[in-house]
Amino acid sequence: MRHCATRWNRPRRPARSRPSSSTTPTNRRRGRSPVSAEADVDVLRREGRIVVVGASLAGLRAAETLRAKGFTGSLTMIGDEPYEPYDRPPLSKQVLLGREEAGDTALPRRRDIDAEWILGVAAEGLDRDTKRVRLANGDTVPYDRLLITTGTRARRWFVPEQAALDGVFVLRTRDDAARLYRKLAAGPSRVLVIGAGFAGSEVASACRERGLEVTVAELGPAPLVGALGGVIGAVAARLQRSHGVDLRCGVSVTALEGDRAGRLRRAHLSDGSAIDVGVAVTALGAIRNTEWLDGSGLAAGPRWGIACDAGCRAFDANGIVTDDIYAAGDVARSPHPLFDYEFLALEHWGNAVEQAEIAAHNMICAGPDRRPHLWLPMFWSAQFGVNIKSVGVPTLGDQLVIAQGTLAEERFVAVYGYHGRVIAAASFDGAKWLGFYQEQIENAAPFPPEYRVVDGRTEKPQPVDPEFPDPHLPTHGATVRLTGHSPSEQRVEFVPRRA
């Protein structure tokens, strides 16, 4: 497979003048040579104090990369949970099915990071003038460079009194998964899942695999519609119903009702119906953890996260890039040249790893040696016996073709086009093709795909509207969010690397 490489159109730097042979030792001592000055800067960047706020996958991988690349200064890891970084994807799959304990999801260490850990204490504020992070316990932590990897949290039920009922859950943390597993193991009469994005659909799948009765309420016209569009969402709807899910689309939950003991007993829907339930799982999307940055002057908010450049450096509120604050993982959004320089906020495991490594590299490198974060979005989900994977940004697509398989078979590859080029692909049990479509996306291949015979078919597949909902209407489950364009000057050219 060919991979994309980048060529940056940097202005040429003037050649350094070398000291002449007649330069005396006295003259040499009067000032430091450019080489010596650069060496001093390099030493300073590999020393000093780096603070990572967010004891997450991105935070851990960044810390490991810092040490691997020679950072010898002090390293502090701050996390609001009492645990060292753990893996989140198993929480909605193996943990809910009882195949893995929530406490056994700790991330493997690739190397010792020799860090000070401050766990169970949330960051509460940032003073950029004094370069200090303020903690909820009143302490402050000084830094020379700061990396923010605070990720997201689950959006809770909007009525606090109802959200506090025994039986109402969200699923984001290790503790959330442990509590929900215990409740499901007790055999509730019916589970209500509010929201049919990827997270909600995975919870519904796990519940059905446990033999529990499940109702899914989705405001949109189909499951996964916000992430993959209505054409693919219709297949996801058939899949859920064929596995016994009571799927109700186009409706919302208006209220959760409890008994006198504070236990969840009933849910009321917008169509006037009510259902008796013992457990409700709210899967209404994520909120980026940026509130602690209020008043810091950074371009950050709970909906879109922290704006940063392709090198992971955070922007301030005036659009000026900082040089000592970086962001990575779910909380970050950055421009991507393959997608019209849109700022992408990615809730992907692979993105968190790749972006963290780029951020760490750039934190300890001089400007000319810094690298852009150009990871191609990839996502996967396992639900109702089907592996769903995607590459690229489906939500940017304005057309769609089924290039392999058929929708009726629930085994296919859907290819998304945008302004006449391939922009994304999604597969149901067809992941073997995604490497090919990754190349198509990287090389801006024309859309519709230019092949006449696919799966023995002699007719070229015809593009259709992917049927994404109005972006102003609330739906659940997009894993890539488009958040606006970067400045208009485009300085990156993709060049395929020859094998």
Task: Name the CATH architecture of the largest domain.
Answer: 3-Layer(bba) Sandwich
Q: Give me the Rg, rounded.
A: 25 Å
What's the CATH first level of the largest domain? Alpha Beta
Give the strand line-up of the largest sheet.
4-3-2-8-22-21
Could you say how many structural domains there are in total?
Answer: 3
Q: Total number of helical segments?
A: 10
CATH evolutionary superfamily of the largest domain: FAD/NAD(P)-binding domain
Structural class: alpha/beta
In short:
With 499 residues, the protein is of the alpha/beta class. Helix content is 20%, strand content 30%.
How would you explain this protein's 3D organization?
The chain has about 500 residues and is α/β, with parallel strands linked by helices. It has three domains: about 35-155 and about 285-370, FAD/NAD(P)-binding domain, CATH 3.50.50.60; about 155-285, FAD/NAD(P)-binding domain (3-Layer(bba) Sandwich); about 380-480, FAD/NAD-linked reductase, C-terminal dimerisation domain (Enolase-like, domain 1). It has ten helices and 31 strands. It has a six-stranded mixed beta sheet, with helices on one face. A five-stranded parallel beta sheet has the order 10-17-11-12-13, with helices on one face. Strands 19-20-23-24-30 form a five-stranded mixed beta sheet, with no helix packed on it. Strand 2, helix 3 (about 55-70) and strand 3 (about 75-80) form a beta-alpha-beta unit. Helix 3 (about 55-70) runs parallel beside helix 9. The longest helix has 15 residues, at about 350-365.
